[in-house]
Amino acid sequence: MKKSLLSxxxxxxxxxxxxxxxxxxxxxxxxxxxxxxxxxxxxxxxxQQKANETQNEMKQVTQEKQQTEAEVKALVxxxxxxxxxxxxxxxxxxxxxxxLNDNAKQLDExxxxxxxxxxxxxxxxxxxxxxxxxxxxxxxLSSTSFGDFLDRMNALKAIVAQDKEILEANRRDQEAKEAKxxxxxxxxxxxxxxxxxxxxxxxxxxxxxxEKEVKIASLDKKEKDLEDISxxxxxxLLAYARKSSALAADKRKAAAAEAAAAAAAAAAKAKANGGxxxxxxxGAPAAQTPAFSGGRFGxxxxxxxxxxxxxxxxxxxxxxxxxxxxxxxxxxxNGTSILAAEExxxxxxxxxSGYGNTxxxxxxxxxxxxxxxxxxxGTVVEKGDHVKRGQKVAEVxxxxxxxxxxxxxxxxxxxxxxxPKPYLK
Length: 425
Prior knowledge:
Elements: H1 2-26, H2 29-131, H3 136-141, H4 146-272, E1 307-309, E2 312-315, E3 322-325, E4 328-331, E5 337-339, E6 344-351, E7 357-364, E8 367-374, E9 386-387, E10 392-395, E11 406-413, E12 416-418, H5 421-424
Antiparallel strand pairs: 1-4, 2-3, 4-11, 5-10, 6-7, 6-9, 7-8, 8-11, 11-12
Helix pairs in contact: 2-4
């Protein structure tokens, strides 16, 4: 069973190798190139889809980062506000401490008064104990005259009143002492709670700030990775465009050669049949457009417009980071006609990463011009079209990563962007 299965696989493989040359032999050279173009178009569409997904992800990361940065700023403001509150807390703590000191002094004074009265009361008790109990009636009855009686009565009243006042003052001081002690305990607890509240508040805010900073660092890394991926994808898309352009040129040459061969064969057949030496004017290959070899390009807009952003490194309007701006921005109203800077072949006429709707024209000898941020529905050429210098190819818009209506214009040599200004002077 295994042998028969192996034989079947080998037979199928051999049959496949026999069929493939015949199938490829049946195709003309231009058909073969068209197959390659179709395959390349599929690959380019898939790569463009990935580039668009990366751009969308970059936008989401940028938005999330901006939101997180806004949250951090809000947290910083919150921390500042809490620091002001903490200053108030510090003032409250300081005031409470002062009150505690005052209350402690007052408590010490009360304690001193109580101790002084205790000494006085103990002294009187000791005196009474040593001299024996004295009857107030005996003191009054032992008076020698009525005047003496009144004097003794007043003296006894003063003594009794003084004793009562001592005892009453002692009671009041004891109550004041207890009240002060309770107040001090409450104020100490309040100070302790305020310190704990301040520490917890500060720790929580600092933890939140640290968490946001970590998140921003993570988003920075993700953003950098996506930028690298986006750059690679752009290079990949440019490589597809170049290969597509080369294949299209080969296809035109092959079609011209096939047409010439068919014309020659038809002429030979006519001659063999005695039909004379007719010639077919349509069979000759078309004249090739001379490739651009440097010099001055035509202005890419219907009228001269102010340059809103120059070629070179600048702060990206979306991420805020320093990034190479690969062309110049020409501010123009929506719908303004965009013109081909030079004769050439359209190799891109579609949405192109952060450029939005884009047209790229191949002028030969490695020279390309790129026209970005075209309005939706504003592209009037298709990939493969041959355009003349000054021909309208699109209309100004603000698609892709754009903050307003303008034309983003690039000049590339062997796919590398160069400053377009010298080519427009």
